[in-house]
Amino acid sequence: MTYKYAFSCSNKWDHLYLLSLKTALSFSVAVLDEHEVVPVAKSVSPQNDSAKISPLGIHLGNRLPAYATSTGKILLSRLNKELQIKWLERHSLKRLTPYTLIDPDGFLAVLQDISHHDYCICKEEHELGVTAIAVPILNSQGDTIAALNCIGPSHRIDDQYFIQQILPLLKQTAHELRAIL
């Protein structure tokens, strides 16, 4: 249930920098480690100081609660239902903000919806003022090994923008990363 892959520093993370240049937003790649996600790569746009949103915990190697982040939810949604239930039995859902989903049945329903759409939008569940969208990153065998997300300020980013403008970029980049991981 834990995704543990070594990501070495190389040109593959230039993809994140290019995304930041195109959008003036922050991007990261995270892996699942039991009940937490761990950012292993990130990029912040050099273009716009207001876009340099650095949410609490979005620092390489920092651990974030999987249930309250876009990367965590997309990775948990890729597990089968039985493993999701076992995960919930071992790990509680604690309120971090007024928007954090803490109902186990509701959480499972959200994971099913995320699995169906193959992306996750998470609004202010981990940190107020922060919205994020994530997609899975697969390896060449088709296994989910990480998640790629875009992070932005809630007051500036809405679902429509994420879905229409950012989601295609994330999917394309995740596909490109698949070829080199």
Give a description of the structure:
This protein is an alpha+beta fold and 181 residues long. The protein has a single domain, classed as GAF domain (Beta-Lactamase, 2-Layer Sandwich), CATH 3.30.450.40. It has 5 helices and 6 strands; from the N terminus they run αβββαααβββα. It has a 6-stranded antiparallel beta sheet with strand order 3-2-1-6-5-4, sandwiched between helices. α1 runs antiparallel to α5 (159-180) and α2 (70-77) crosses α4 (104-117). The chain starts with 13 loop residues before the first helix and ends with a helix. The model is unreliable at 1-10 and 48-53 (pLDDT under 50).
Strand content: 15-25%
Kindly report the spatial arrangement of strands forming the biggest sheet.
3-2-1-6-5-4
Number of helices: 5
Could you report the average pLDDT, rounded to the nearest whole number? 86
Q: Can you give the helix content as a percent range?
A: 25-40%
Radius of gyration: 15 Å
Q: What order do the SSEs take from the amino end to the carboxyl end, as H and E?
A: HEEEHHHEEEH
Please identify, by name, the CATH architecture. 2-Layer Sandwich
- The N- to C-terminal Cα distance equals 20 Å
According to DSSP, the number of beta strands is 6
Q: Name the CATH class.
A: Alpha Beta
Global morphology? globular
CATH superfamily label: GAF domain
Largest sheet: 6 strands, antiparallel
Summarize the structure.
The protein is α+β, with helices and mostly antiparallel strands and 181 residues long. The chain is built from 5 helices and 6 strands; from the N terminus they run αβββαααβββα.
